[in-house]
Please model this.
Amino acid sequence: MESSAATPISTSRVALPFLIVGTAAVIFGGLFSAATARSATYHSAWLVAYLVLVVGVAQVALGLGEWWLASRPLRFSFIWGQVVLFALGNAGVILGSLSGSTFWVDVGSAFLLVAIGSFGWAVRSPRPRGWALWAFWALIGFLLASVVVGVYFAHVGAP
Model:
């Protein structure tokens, strides 16, 4: 049975898009690192770290956390909205950081703030999961703080 935008999907399928995109980002980051290892630059090293840690690991952790903790079924449109917002946000941050454009960093960061906030909203009344809930909220807090710090460094220059 196909889900429509108005039909909730089971929580067991919530994490799949995040797992696919996040795993692809980790693999691409590793391949890019291998390809540029002999002539690595600050920008190539930053891109690899960003792809692996934010686009990859953090996205997988957010998707799995949302799946594990959400007490209500999440709509297909909501999940794909998160995927798209997170992708657009990361694309903006990467484009802006590599081109030196604070405009694109700001736009990407705004998308990321909304995307990260949506993960918190999805788990606003979570299933009781103990340490997993604390870890999920810690990740959200860390990512939100990282966006603010990243915007600051984009505007004043990295140390």
